[in-house]
Structure formats: C-alpha cells, structure tokens
Design goal:
Radius of gyration: 15 Å
Helix content: 40-55%
Mean pLDDT: 87
Structural class: alpha/beta
Number of domains: 1
Oligomer: single chain
Low-confidence stretches: none
Distance between the termini: 24 Å
Order of helices and strands: EHEHHEEHE
Number of helices: 4
CATH topology: Rossmann fold
CATH architecture: 3-Layer(aba) Sandwich
Shape: globular
CATH superfamily: NAD(P)-binding Rossmann-like Domain
C-alpha cells in the first residue's frame, strides 16, 4: 500500500487529490511549476478543511493531522522515495509526456505512476 504520494500539479484537481489523500492518512508531497499555484493549492486545502471542521465533518485534531501530512515542495529533489506519483498538470499532451519521460529517471522501478486526465488518451 502506498504511504507517500507525490502530486504534481496544485490546481483544482491536484489540490483535491492531495486533500483526499491527507485526510485518508497519507503523507503527500504537493508541487507545481508555479509558486502562485502551489500557494493557492495549499490555501485551498486549508480553507476546505476548515469548512469541513466548521460543519462538524472533521475535528480540529483531524484537520491539523491532515495538514501535518501535507508537504508543499518547490522541486522534485529529495522526493524519490514515494510510492505513488499522480500527475495533475495542465491538459496538454506534450507537457504530460515530458513529465512522464523525466519522472522515469527520478523515481524507482517500484513507483506507481498515475495520470489525471479527462481528454487525453493514455496509451503505452
């Protein structure tokens, strides 16, 4: 079972994936090429968790524990020991292909790669 997850892309989908994973108890590294997107993604997660807490869906302790599981990073250096990599970058095939080509060099053979795409055919 994956314990450490890397989410590449901190937009709406990436931040949502990261939030779901941290609430489920996983350690998540979240990154994006844009500083502003990393900040917006992290802030969005914090805001949504606060709303869940205000509605009584999670406790303050659960919120804080989830946020402790979120590690926002500015580069992929030092995160080679993840079990699962989920890309949630812009819907441009060339960007996704380049990311997966590079990622093949960054991570071990046991790392699982996943793509979040709604409009690009995923083929071998």
């Amino acid at each position: 079972m994956a314990e450490k997850i890397l989410v590449i892309g901190a937009g709406q989908m990436g931040a949502g994936i990261a939030q779901t994973a941290i609430v489920s108890g996983f350690t998540v590294y979240l990154t994006d090429a844009l500083v502003s997107q990393r900040e917006r993604g992290q802030q969005g997660i914090e805001t949504r968790l606060s709303r869940l807490m205000d509605k009584g869906k999670i406790t303050a302790e659960e919120k804080n524990h989830a946020l402790d599981q979120l590690i926002v990073i500015d580069s992929l250096r030092g995160v080679s020991q993840v079990d699962l990599v989920i890309e949630a970058v812009v819907e441009q095939e060339s960007v996704k292909r380049e990311l997966f080509r590079d990622a093949d060099q960054w991570f071990g053979a046991e790392t699982i790669f996943a793509s979040n795409t709604s409009s690009i055919a995923v083929t071998l």
